[in-house]
Amino acid sequence: MTITSPQGFRASGVTAGLKASGTSDVALVVNDGPSDVAACVYTSNRCKANPVLWSEQVTADGRAKAVVLNSGGANCYTGPEGFQTTHASAELVAERLGMGAIDVVVCSTGLIGDQLDRDKLSAGIERAADALSAGGGTAAAEAIMTTDTRSKESERSGDGWTVGGMAKGAGMLAPALATMLVVITTDAQLDSAVADRALRAATRVTFDRLDSDGCMSTNDTVLLMSSGASGVKPDEAVFTARLTEVCHDLAQQLLSDAEGADHDIAIEVVNAASEDDAVEVGRSVARSNLFKAAVFGKDPNWGRILASVGTTGAVFEPGELDVAMNGVWICRGGEPGDSRELVDLNEREVSVTVDLKAGTESATIWTNDLTHAYVHENSAYST
Amino acid sequence: MTITSPQGFRASGVTAGLKASGTSDVALVVNDGPSDVAACVYTSNRCKANPVLWSEQVTADGRAKAVVLNSGGANCYTGPEGFQTTHASAELVAERLGMGAIDVVVCSTGLIGDQLDRDKLSAGIERAADALSAGGGTAAAEAIMTTDTRSKESERSGDGWTVGGMAKGAGMLAPALATMLVVITTDAQLDSAVADRALRAATRVTFDRLDSDGCMSTNDTVLLMSSGASGVKPDEAVFTARLTEVCHDLAQQLLSDAEGADHDIAIEVVNAASEDDAVEVGRSVARSNLFKAAVFGKDPNWGRILASVGTTGAVFEPGELDVAMNGVWICRGGEPGDSRELVDLNEREVSVTVDLKAGTESATIWTNDLTHAYVHENSAYST
């Protein structure tokens, strides 16, 4: 149930003292091979953190041998000094593990705009290298937590091979790839092209459809590393399916641990003219603060859903829209349908269905409600 | 200081019983001429309320003689029955005032998805017609309030003529025109083309740049009516300037009364390659819940500003951006600048300046912070 479940990986998580809380904050994951195939997707934010700028170079050739991750600081908007910190981290890992720095992915998470303490980080990396073990996956998953209340791990298996994953993320969960740190390992034998195709296919319908608060991070990274240690080369479709399940599971764990959320909301848009239309409509609803606050108040205010749908360019006729919440069709043909009194929003899970009646495509976007606790946590984060 | 300040207008505000609070809820404004020139801009939401669908027909010829407005219900997503309610309101006003229904603009505001009580509304319109007076502007401004805590009025004068305005709006304040109900009167002599040009020019840089919570209403209407009763035909540029001042004043009043807000935030984007770029960047920052929650917490978290800037397509180099809050340049050249400790966020007014260093254009977007009170008010609105 962790990243060291697949054969060929060691990991560790240690405390370097980067976080005021004093909990563990440096994680290291090493791929002992025989293969070093890797694929990675990064934030599409144009203001990328230094570790992202570095790691894009590392994974450009479809290979990576290790990833070092720290919480306690995003190392973003920290200029050349921050980039040197990232580079020094990769050099130190490389030196300790006998590889090139260009094989070491670096990920950071935490507050933007502060320099990381390079001495503390280096000492942490030394300890993490010492602590590497085939049972260290969960320690690594714990060391990458920031405002997460629990670590996030997942695992699926195929015929003779395994995929394991870990993730961190509880805020700034929004689109256009990743939006969190995720490391996925597998002992399946993959070539670079298959790894890349499978990772993009999996993230497109999982992490990319998570929109907790509309805010896109500068540090998002989803890394897949293959050791090939199982000796088994899986069918690409089967591997992609299992990988997608791991990504979906981790995405749902992120959703259910989103900062201050009381409700997990699945917005399913059906009968759209295109998948893009369905995604656009779902994302628009997921970004309506008014709708999200209403869900927090257990108020099935479907007018706020329609007001959001109306801001999109999707194909639909306003007078034909149907909307359901938790299975109750409270709007039919653009008019009041079944009584909103029938909608029970006491459970954490909420489903919204928007029927565009314009085609056959569909998509689901996942989001959270807007709560007092979200405001509290995000008004006090850096202070 | 109200819509009946210009000559040639009468107004009233009465209680029809549409609002549970029992405060006044029907307003009527009549243009007694001699001119009946009018211009109007409406929400760009594709899910338009019935009164918007009706009023678009009324103002299509650049003329209107009266406007009837109600709070206590948006009459949106209420189907043909709701449209008939709007039409019946216009018919009743027309009958009482001796004009055609096609000269009567109708505006509604309140909860989406509920039918208005047509009998109560009709009785209210009768009383509003009886109550019309040349001193009734403020009563009208009070009758259109929903969650507003105060009425909003403004006035400017030219050489022999006057512009008066009233507005309602405290939530769903977002782009793409209006996003509230606004009635502006003038006794200046205008032809339809001038009225339309002046209104579009004024709203483009005022109401259109207000983005309180990113949510676009279905009912937004900004109506300008000219009586011509002053007998003075103003210079178009001067009239446009005064009209823009009235719109700016009303927009600022809307901002300062936004639901649950503790801070009014002006986001100025300077040295942009184009005005569109400046608006896109400003709006992106204005829609960051994380940034808005940080301002509520008096936390000058500039990383959240840059993370939002990075999601746009505007021309800029990430490593060249400067950002100031309340005049303190906390980010210079994409790195930490002056100490964030120097930024005092205790006052209600907050200024953010983003220097894109990509050109000479600029724009300001106005927004509010994200507070516990916003969540509270919007989680309890319809219940």
UniProtKB/TrEMBL annotation, chains A, B:
Pathway(s) annotated for this protein in UniProt: Amino-acid biosynthesis; L-arginine biosynthesis; N(2)-acetyl-L-ornithine from L-glutamate: step 1/4; Amino-acid biosynthesis; L-arginine biosynthesis; L-ornithine and N-acetyl-L-glutamate from L-glutamate and N(2)-acetyl-L-ornithine (cyclic): step 1/1
CDD domains to which the protein is assigned, alphabetical: OAT
Primary localization: cytoplasm
Gene3D superfamilies, A to Z: ArgJ beta chain, C-terminal domain, L-amino peptidase D-ALA esterase/amidase
GO MF term (any one): L-glutamate N-acetyltransferase activity, acting on acetyl-L-ornithine as donor
GO biological process: L-arginine biosynthetic process; ornithine biosynthetic process
Catalytic activity of the protein: N(2)-acetyl-L-ornithine + L-glutamate = N-acetyl-L-glutamate + L-ornithine; L-glutamate + acetyl-CoA = N-acetyl-L-glutamate + CoA + H(+)
Pfam families for the chain: ArgJ
GO annotation, cellular component aspect: cytoplasm
Keyword vocabulary terms for this entry: Acyltransferase, Amino-acid biosynthesis, Arginine biosynthesis, Autocatalytic cleavage, Cytoplasm, Multifunctional enzyme, Transferase
Stretches that traverse the bilayer: none
Cellular localisation: Cytoplasm
Cleavage, annotated site positions: A178, T179
Positions marked as site (Involved in the stabilization of negative charge on the oxyanion by the formation of the oxyanion hole): T109, G110
Residues binding substrate, per UniProt: T146, K168, T179, E259, N378, T383
Catalytic residues, chain numbering: T179
EC number: 2.3.1.35, 2.3.1.1
SUPFAM superfamilies named in the record: DmpA/ArgJ-like
Record family assignment: Belongs to the ArgJ family.
Quaternary data: Heterotetramer of two alpha and two beta chains.
Role played: Catalyzes two activities which are involved in the cyclic version of arginine biosynthesis: the synthesis of N-acetylglutamate from glutamate and acetyl-CoA as the acetyl donor, and of ornithine by transacetylation between N(2)-acetylornithine and glutamate.
Official protein name in the record: Arginine biosynthesis bifunctional protein ArgJ
Organism: Prauserella sediminis
Gene name as annotated: argJ
